Amino acid sequence: MSQIGSNIKKLRKVKGLSQQAFADLFGLTRGNISSYEERRAEPKIEIILQIAKYFGIPVAELLQKQLTVNEILNFEDYFEDSTLPVAAKNMSAVPFIGRESFLHADQKIDVATLPQIYFPIYHKQKFLAVENCSFIPKPLVFPFEENAILFFEPVEIAILHTLDQHYGVYWGADELFFGQYQTNSNEIELILNDWMKTIFTEEKKSYFWKLYGKFERVV
C-alpha cells in the first residue's frame, strides 16, 4: 500500500505547513492535499516527483516507507528562508536559486524576488547561490553532489585569465545552466555539452558567474 498520503501529512506537520501552504508549493488546492492525506486520492506522478525533489527525499521512500520525524529532518539539505537570527547580522545575504524556483514553469526567475540565505562568506562582489538540482542542465561530468549549494562570483574582466577549466553558471534572460569554461586564444566559452555553449562577451558579462565555493551536507 502506498504511504504517500501519510508521508505528505507528516512532512507538512514537521515543516510547519498548513494544507493550503503545502498546496501552494506545488500548484495544488487545499482539497487536493486533504484527499491525499485521507487516502481518498493519490497525487499524479509528476506531483510526487516535485514533492520528492523539493524535500530531497528518494521517490521510492516517499511512496513505500512510513517516514519518521528524524528521517524527514535528516533529509533537510537546503536553506530555509526564515527570520534572520541575530548571529546572521554579520553574514552576507546571498540571492538563492533553489529547487522551489522551478515549481511553476510559467514563472521567470527574477533576482528581485529570490529568497536570500545568510552565509559567512565575504567578497567585494555580490555572490549568487544555486542549488545543484535536476532542474538545471549540467555537464555529463559534474563533480558536485545533488542538492549541494554552489556559490558563484560574477565574472569581471580582471579575472578572465583564471576561468579556463573552472566551473561556472550562465544565467541569462531565458537560460540557466552549469558549465565549464574553456579558453581558446582570445575567446572564452562556457560549455554545457557539444551542442550547447555560449561565448563570453563584455556586453553579456553580467550573465556569467564563476564557481567560488560549495556547501554540502555531510551524512
TrEMBL record:
<dbReference type="InterPro" id="IPR001387">
    <property type="entry name" value="Cro/C1-type_HTH"/>
</dbReference>
<dbReference type="GO" id="GO:0003677">
    <property type="term" value="F:DNA binding"/>
</dbReference>
<dbReference type="InterPro" id="IPR010982">
    <property type="entry name" value="Lambda_DNA-bd_dom_sf"/>
</dbReference>
<protein>
    <submittedName>
        <fullName>Helix-turn-helix transcriptional regulator</fullName>
    </submittedName>
</protein>
<dbReference type="Pfam" id="PF01381">
    <property type="entry name" value="HTH_3"/>
</dbReference>
<keyword id="KW-0238">DNA-binding</keyword>
<feature type="domain" description="HTH cro/C1-type">
    <location>
        <begin position="8"/>
        <end position="62"/>
    </location>
</feature>
